[in-house]
Specification:
Layout: H1 3-19, H2 24-35, E1 39-46, E2 51-58, H3 62-70, H4 79-83, H5 93-96, H6 99-104, H7 106-112, E3 117-127, E4 131-140, H8 148-168, H9 181-186, E5 191-195, E6 201-204, H10 206-214, E7 219-221, E8 224-226, H11 230-243, H12 247-250, E9 257-260, E10 266-273, H13 280-285, E11 290-296, H14 304-312, H15 316-327, H16 331-338, H17 342-356, H18 361-369
Antiparallel strand pairs: 1-2, 1-4, 3-4, 5-6, 5-11, 7-8, 9-10, 10-11
Helix pairs in contact: 1-2, 1-8, 15-17, 15-18, 16-17
Length: 377
Protein backbone atom coordinates (compact mmCIF):
# COMPACT_ATOMS: atom_id res chain seq x y z
CA UNK A 1 0.00 0.00 0.00
CA UNK A 2 1.51 3.36 -1.02
CA UNK A 3 1.37 6.49 1.13
CA UNK A 4 -1.71 7.88 -0.62
CA UNK A 5 -3.66 4.65 -0.16
CA UNK A 6 -2.47 4.34 3.43
CA UNK A 7 -3.60 7.90 4.18
CA UNK A 8 -7.01 7.38 2.57
CA UNK A 9 -7.60 4.16 4.50
CA UNK A 10 -6.44 5.71 7.77
CA UNK A 11 -8.71 8.75 7.41
CA UNK A 12 -11.68 6.47 6.77
CA UNK A 13 -10.90 4.48 9.91
CA UNK A 14 -10.53 7.69 11.92
CA UNK A 15 -14.07 8.70 10.98
CA UNK A 16 -15.37 5.21 11.76
CA UNK A 17 -13.95 5.65 15.26
CA UNK A 18 -16.15 8.73 15.72
CA UNK A 19 -19.14 6.39 15.74
CA UNK A 20 -17.43 3.37 17.31
CA UNK A 21 -14.99 4.35 20.09
CA UNK A 22 -13.75 0.76 20.40
CA UNK A 23 -11.82 1.40 17.17
CA UNK A 24 -9.65 4.18 18.61
CA UNK A 25 -6.86 1.94 19.93
CA UNK A 26 -6.35 0.29 16.54
CA UNK A 27 -6.63 3.64 14.75
CA UNK A 28 -4.01 5.20 17.04
CA UNK A 29 -1.65 2.33 16.29
CA UNK A 30 -1.98 2.96 12.56
CA UNK A 31 -1.65 6.71 13.11
CA UNK A 32 1.56 6.20 15.10
CA UNK A 33 3.07 4.10 12.33
CA UNK A 34 1.98 6.60 9.67
CA UNK A 35 3.53 9.57 11.51
CA UNK A 36 6.61 7.60 12.53
CA UNK A 37 6.65 6.36 16.11
CA UNK A 38 5.88 3.36 18.33
CA UNK A 39 3.04 4.86 20.36
CA UNK A 40 0.27 7.45 20.20
CA UNK A 41 -2.43 8.83 22.47
CA UNK A 42 -5.57 10.92 22.66
CA UNK A 43 -5.39 12.78 25.96
CA UNK A 44 -6.18 16.00 27.76
CA UNK A 45 -4.16 18.27 30.03
CA UNK A 46 -4.78 21.25 32.25
CA UNK A 47 -2.03 23.85 32.12
CA UNK A 48 -3.32 25.47 35.29
CA UNK A 49 -3.57 22.46 37.60
CA UNK A 50 -1.02 20.33 35.70
CA UNK A 51 -3.29 17.33 35.65
CA UNK A 52 -4.58 15.20 32.79
CA UNK A 53 -5.70 11.79 31.60
CA UNK A 54 -5.57 9.52 28.57
CA UNK A 55 -8.77 8.80 26.69
CA UNK A 56 -7.29 6.24 24.29
CA UNK A 57 -3.73 5.14 23.62
CA UNK A 58 -1.65 2.62 21.73
CA UNK A 59 1.81 1.30 22.54
CA UNK A 60 2.41 3.20 25.78
CA UNK A 61 3.83 1.47 28.85
CA UNK A 62 1.08 1.20 31.54
CA UNK A 63 3.59 1.67 34.36
CA UNK A 64 5.14 4.83 32.91
CA UNK A 65 1.72 6.14 31.86
CA UNK A 66 0.58 5.95 35.48
CA UNK A 67 3.80 7.51 36.71
CA UNK A 68 3.38 10.39 34.26
CA UNK A 69 -0.02 11.50 35.54
CA UNK A 70 0.82 10.84 39.18
CA UNK A 71 4.20 12.58 39.25
CA UNK A 72 5.88 13.62 36.04
CA UNK A 73 3.19 15.72 34.38
CA UNK A 74 4.22 18.50 36.78
CA UNK A 75 7.84 18.11 35.67
CA UNK A 76 7.16 17.83 31.94
CA UNK A 77 8.68 20.96 30.36
CA UNK A 78 6.41 20.64 27.31
CA UNK A 79 3.05 20.84 29.12
CA UNK A 80 2.66 24.63 29.14
CA UNK A 81 3.85 25.05 25.56
CA UNK A 82 1.53 22.33 24.27
CA UNK A 83 -1.42 24.09 25.84
CA UNK A 84 -0.71 27.30 23.92
CA UNK A 85 -0.04 25.66 20.56
CA UNK A 86 -2.27 26.56 17.63
CA UNK A 87 -5.01 24.04 16.87
CA UNK A 88 -3.92 21.45 14.26
CA UNK A 89 -0.35 22.80 14.15
CA UNK A 90 2.17 20.07 15.12
CA UNK A 91 4.47 21.05 17.95
CA UNK A 92 7.54 19.13 19.14
CA UNK A 93 9.80 19.36 22.17
CA UNK A 94 12.33 21.69 20.52
CA UNK A 95 9.52 24.17 19.72
CA UNK A 96 8.92 24.59 23.44
CA UNK A 97 12.29 24.23 25.13
CA UNK A 98 15.89 24.13 23.85
CA UNK A 99 16.54 20.45 23.22
CA UNK A 100 19.81 20.45 25.19
CA UNK A 101 17.90 21.85 28.16
CA UNK A 102 15.27 19.15 27.73
CA UNK A 103 17.97 16.45 27.90
CA UNK A 104 19.17 17.91 31.21
CA UNK A 105 15.70 17.91 32.76
CA UNK A 106 14.64 15.53 35.46
CA UNK A 107 11.62 14.60 33.31
CA UNK A 108 13.84 13.31 30.52
CA UNK A 109 16.32 11.55 32.81
CA UNK A 110 13.74 9.78 34.95
CA UNK A 111 10.77 9.25 32.64
CA UNK A 112 11.60 9.53 28.93
CA UNK A 113 15.16 8.14 28.77
CA UNK A 114 14.39 4.84 30.55
CA UNK A 115 11.80 4.15 27.84
CA UNK A 116 14.13 5.12 25.00
CA UNK A 117 11.88 8.08 24.10
CA UNK A 118 13.56 11.14 22.59
CA UNK A 119 10.71 13.35 21.38
CA UNK A 120 6.95 13.83 21.21
CA UNK A 121 4.95 15.53 18.46
CA UNK A 122 1.51 16.76 19.45
CA UNK A 123 -1.45 18.49 17.82
CA UNK A 124 -4.04 20.38 19.86
CA UNK A 125 -7.55 19.29 18.91
CA UNK A 126 -9.65 21.56 21.09
CA UNK A 127 -9.16 24.02 23.95
CA UNK A 128 -11.34 25.36 26.72
CA UNK A 129 -10.54 27.80 29.51
CA UNK A 130 -8.88 25.14 31.64
CA UNK A 131 -7.95 22.16 29.46
CA UNK A 132 -6.72 21.15 26.03
CA UNK A 133 -7.52 17.93 24.18
CA UNK A 134 -4.55 16.62 22.17
CA UNK A 135 -3.32 13.91 19.84
CA UNK A 136 0.32 12.97 20.12
CA UNK A 137 2.87 10.51 18.75
CA UNK A 138 5.98 9.43 20.67
CA UNK A 139 9.37 9.20 18.98
CA UNK A 140 11.77 6.45 20.08
CA UNK A 141 15.54 6.81 19.83
CA UNK A 142 15.46 4.56 16.76
CA UNK A 143 13.09 7.08 15.08
CA UNK A 144 15.12 10.16 15.97
CA UNK A 145 13.75 13.57 16.88
CA UNK A 146 10.78 15.09 15.07
CA UNK A 147 11.69 16.27 11.59
CA UNK A 148 9.93 17.99 8.68
CA UNK A 149 8.45 14.74 7.34
CA UNK A 150 7.02 13.90 10.77
CA UNK A 151 5.31 17.27 11.02
CA UNK A 152 3.87 16.99 7.51
CA UNK A 153 2.37 13.59 8.27
CA UNK A 154 0.83 14.97 11.46
CA UNK A 155 -0.68 17.82 9.46
CA UNK A 156 -2.31 15.33 7.09
CA UNK A 157 -4.24 13.43 9.76
CA UNK A 158 -4.63 15.78 12.76
CA UNK A 159 -7.59 17.75 11.30
CA UNK A 160 -9.47 14.50 10.63
CA UNK A 161 -8.78 13.24 14.15
CA UNK A 162 -10.04 16.56 15.48
CA UNK A 163 -13.29 16.29 13.50
CA UNK A 164 -13.81 12.70 14.67
CA UNK A 165 -13.13 13.57 18.33
CA UNK A 166 -15.42 16.61 18.33
CA UNK A 167 -18.26 14.60 16.80
CA UNK A 168 -17.74 11.60 19.09
CA UNK A 169 -18.13 13.90 22.10
CA UNK A 170 -21.75 14.39 21.12
CA UNK A 171 -22.48 10.72 20.53
CA UNK A 172 -22.51 7.67 22.76
CA UNK A 173 -23.44 4.84 20.44
CA UNK A 174 -23.12 2.28 23.24
CA UNK A 175 -26.08 3.83 25.06
CA UNK A 176 -28.30 3.77 21.98
CA UNK A 177 -31.34 1.52 22.36
CA UNK A 178 -31.70 0.99 18.64
CA UNK A 179 -29.36 -0.53 16.10
CA UNK A 180 -30.27 1.83 13.27
CA UNK A 181 -27.89 4.67 12.52
CA UNK A 182 -30.47 7.46 12.42
CA UNK A 183 -32.34 5.97 15.36
CA UNK A 184 -29.18 5.91 17.45
CA UNK A 185 -28.58 9.58 16.71
CA UNK A 186 -32.15 10.72 17.28
CA UNK A 187 -31.66 10.76 21.03
CA UNK A 188 -28.55 12.96 21.20
CA UNK A 189 -28.85 16.53 22.41
CA UNK A 190 -27.03 17.99 19.42
CA UNK A 191 -28.97 18.73 16.26
CA UNK A 192 -28.23 16.12 13.59
CA UNK A 193 -29.05 16.21 9.87
CA UNK A 194 -28.36 13.60 7.19
CA UNK A 195 -27.94 15.37 3.86
CA UNK A 196 -27.18 14.46 0.25
CA UNK A 197 -24.55 16.10 -1.97
CA UNK A 198 -26.90 18.98 -2.81
CA UNK A 199 -27.63 19.74 0.89
CA UNK A 200 -31.09 18.14 0.69
CA UNK A 201 -32.20 16.98 4.14
CA UNK A 202 -32.99 13.27 4.10
CA UNK A 203 -33.31 12.88 7.87
CA UNK A 204 -33.13 15.04 11.00
CA UNK A 205 -33.29 14.09 14.67
CA UNK A 206 -35.58 15.74 17.21
CA UNK A 207 -33.10 18.48 18.08
CA UNK A 208 -32.53 19.11 14.37
CA UNK A 209 -36.25 19.50 13.66
CA UNK A 210 -36.53 21.89 16.62
CA UNK A 211 -33.75 24.07 15.19
CA UNK A 212 -35.49 24.20 11.80
CA UNK A 213 -38.83 25.11 13.36
CA UNK A 214 -37.37 28.13 15.14
CA UNK A 215 -35.51 29.24 11.99
CA UNK A 216 -33.13 31.06 14.30
CA UNK A 217 -29.95 29.95 12.56
CA UNK A 218 -30.87 27.05 10.25
CA UNK A 219 -33.58 26.79 7.63
CA UNK A 220 -34.96 24.28 5.15
CA UNK A 221 -35.47 25.97 1.77
CA UNK A 222 -37.12 23.69 -0.79
CA UNK A 223 -35.99 20.77 1.38
CA UNK A 224 -32.36 21.87 1.43
CA UNK A 225 -30.43 22.89 4.52
CA UNK A 226 -29.50 26.58 4.52
CA UNK A 227 -28.16 29.32 6.79
CA UNK A 228 -28.59 33.09 6.78
CA UNK A 229 -24.82 33.58 6.50
CA UNK A 230 -23.89 33.34 2.82
CA UNK A 231 -20.26 32.43 3.45
CA UNK A 232 -21.13 29.68 5.95
CA UNK A 233 -23.83 28.40 3.63
CA UNK A 234 -21.31 28.18 0.78
CA UNK A 235 -18.80 26.34 3.00
CA UNK A 236 -21.35 23.73 4.02
CA UNK A 237 -22.52 23.19 0.45
CA UNK A 238 -18.92 22.66 -0.68
CA UNK A 239 -18.33 20.15 2.10
CA UNK A 240 -21.51 18.22 1.31
CA UNK A 241 -20.60 18.12 -2.37
CA UNK A 242 -17.07 16.93 -1.57
CA UNK A 243 -18.38 14.24 0.80
CA UNK A 244 -19.78 12.39 -2.18
CA UNK A 245 -16.19 11.76 -3.29
CA UNK A 246 -15.03 10.19 -0.02
CA UNK A 247 -13.34 11.09 3.23
CA UNK A 248 -10.14 12.60 1.83
CA UNK A 249 -12.07 14.92 -0.51
CA UNK A 250 -13.79 16.56 2.46
CA UNK A 251 -10.41 17.82 3.65
CA UNK A 252 -10.25 20.25 6.53
CA UNK A 253 -13.35 22.27 5.70
CA UNK A 254 -16.38 21.79 7.90
CA UNK A 255 -14.46 20.70 11.01
CA UNK A 256 -15.78 23.59 13.10
CA UNK A 257 -18.12 25.85 11.16
CA UNK A 258 -19.40 28.77 13.29
CA UNK A 259 -23.10 29.66 13.13
CA UNK A 260 -24.59 32.81 14.65
CA UNK A 261 -28.28 32.85 15.47
CA UNK A 262 -30.47 35.91 14.95
CA UNK A 263 -30.70 36.11 18.74
CA UNK A 264 -26.91 36.44 18.91
CA UNK A 265 -26.31 32.95 20.30
CA UNK A 266 -23.42 31.06 18.78
CA UNK A 267 -23.40 27.47 17.52
CA UNK A 268 -20.81 25.14 16.04
CA UNK A 269 -21.40 22.70 13.18
CA UNK A 270 -19.33 19.60 12.34
CA UNK A 271 -19.61 17.48 9.19
CA UNK A 272 -19.05 13.70 9.17
CA UNK A 273 -18.77 12.11 5.68
CA UNK A 274 -20.82 8.93 5.15
CA UNK A 275 -19.47 7.60 1.87
CA UNK A 276 -16.55 5.47 3.11
CA UNK A 277 -15.74 2.83 5.70
CA UNK A 278 -18.38 1.43 8.02
CA UNK A 279 -20.41 4.63 7.60
CA UNK A 280 -21.16 3.82 3.96
CA UNK A 281 -24.04 1.51 4.86
CA UNK A 282 -25.78 4.26 6.78
CA UNK A 283 -25.24 6.73 3.96
CA UNK A 284 -26.67 4.36 1.35
CA UNK A 285 -29.68 3.51 3.51
CA UNK A 286 -30.64 7.18 3.69
CA UNK A 287 -29.18 8.32 0.35
CA UNK A 288 -27.02 10.66 2.42
CA UNK A 289 -23.39 11.67 1.87
CA UNK A 290 -22.82 13.41 5.20
CA UNK A 291 -24.12 13.93 8.71
CA UNK A 292 -24.13 17.46 10.09
CA UNK A 293 -23.97 17.88 13.87
CA UNK A 294 -24.83 21.23 15.45
CA UNK A 295 -24.37 22.19 19.09
CA UNK A 296 -24.37 25.40 21.07
CA UNK A 297 -20.89 26.88 21.34
CA UNK A 298 -19.26 27.08 24.73
CA UNK A 299 -17.98 30.41 25.96
CA UNK A 300 -14.32 30.67 25.01
CA UNK A 301 -12.29 32.41 27.68
CA UNK A 302 -8.54 32.39 27.89
CA UNK A 303 -7.08 30.73 30.98
CA UNK A 304 -5.13 32.92 33.44
CA UNK A 305 -1.75 31.44 32.41
CA UNK A 306 -2.55 32.12 28.75
CA UNK A 307 -3.56 35.70 29.54
CA UNK A 308 -0.33 36.25 31.47
CA UNK A 309 1.79 34.78 28.68
CA UNK A 310 0.17 36.95 26.02
CA UNK A 311 0.24 40.09 28.17
CA UNK A 312 3.95 39.91 28.84
CA UNK A 313 4.99 38.02 25.67
CA UNK A 314 6.42 35.12 27.67
CA UNK A 315 7.83 32.00 26.05
CA UNK A 316 6.44 28.65 27.26
CA UNK A 317 9.60 28.05 29.29
CA UNK A 318 9.43 31.49 30.92
CA UNK A 319 5.79 30.94 31.81
CA UNK A 320 6.65 27.54 33.23
CA UNK A 321 9.32 29.07 35.47
CA UNK A 322 6.97 31.87 36.52
CA UNK A 323 4.25 29.44 37.58
CA UNK A 324 6.81 27.31 39.39
CA UNK A 325 8.02 30.34 41.35
CA UNK A 326 4.45 31.03 42.45
CA UNK A 327 3.69 27.42 43.30
CA UNK A 328 7.04 26.13 44.61
CA UNK A 329 9.20 28.99 45.87
CA UNK A 330 12.76 30.18 45.31
CA UNK A 331 15.37 29.34 42.70
CA UNK A 332 16.74 26.18 44.40
CA UNK A 333 13.26 24.76 44.93
CA UNK A 334 12.18 25.58 41.36
CA UNK A 335 15.36 24.04 39.93
CA UNK A 336 14.74 20.85 41.89
CA UNK A 337 11.06 20.71 40.95
CA UNK A 338 11.72 21.28 37.24
CA UNK A 339 14.82 19.12 37.17
CA UNK A 340 17.11 21.78 35.69
CA UNK A 341 20.19 23.64 36.89
CA UNK A 342 19.82 26.67 39.14
CA UNK A 343 21.72 28.73 36.57
CA UNK A 344 19.03 27.88 33.99
CA UNK A 345 16.28 29.06 36.35
CA UNK A 346 18.21 32.27 37.08
CA UNK A 347 18.55 32.96 33.34
CA UNK A 348 14.80 32.65 32.81
CA UNK A 349 14.11 34.62 35.97
CA UNK A 350 16.18 37.52 34.65
CA UNK A 351 14.10 37.54 31.47
CA UNK A 352 10.91 37.46 33.53
CA UNK A 353 12.03 40.52 35.50
CA UNK A 354 12.83 42.35 32.29
CA UNK A 355 9.56 41.52 30.53
CA UNK A 356 7.28 42.17 33.51
CA UNK A 357 9.09 45.26 34.82
CA UNK A 358 9.69 43.67 38.22
CA UNK A 359 12.91 43.02 40.15
CA UNK A 360 11.93 40.63 42.93
CA UNK A 361 10.34 37.19 43.05
CA UNK A 362 7.76 38.55 45.48
CA UNK A 363 6.71 41.04 42.82
CA UNK A 364 6.17 38.19 40.36
CA UNK A 365 3.94 36.41 42.87
CA UNK A 366 1.88 39.61 43.33
CA UNK A 367 1.69 40.06 39.56
CA UNK A 368 0.24 36.59 39.08
CA UNK A 369 -2.16 37.07 42.00
CA UNK A 370 -3.45 40.18 40.28
CA UNK A 371 -5.08 38.11 37.59
CA UNK A 372 -8.61 37.35 38.71
CA UNK A 373 -8.83 33.58 38.44
CA UNK A 374 -6.62 31.29 40.52
CA UNK A 375 -3.94 29.36 38.69
CA UNK A 376 -4.65 26.16 40.49
CA UNK A 377 -7.46 23.98 39.18
Amino acid sequence: MNDEQQLSTLIGEIYDAALDPSRWVEVLGKAARFVGGPAAALFFKSAASKTGAVAYDYGTDPHYRQLYFERYIKLDPSTTGQFFAEVDEPIATADIIPYDEFLQSRFYREWAKPQGLVDFVVSVLDKSMTTAAMFGVFRHERDGVVDFATRERMRLIAPHIRRAVLISRMIDMKKAETATFAGALDGINAGMFLVDASARIVHANVAGHAALETGNFLNAIAGRLATDDGQVDQTLREVFAAAGNGDVAVGTKGISVPLTARSGERYIAHVLPLTSGERRRAGKAYTAVAALFVRKAEMETASPPEVIAKTYKLTPTELRVLLAIVEVGGVPEVATALGVAETTVKTHLGRLFEKTGTNRQADLVKLVAGFASPLRG
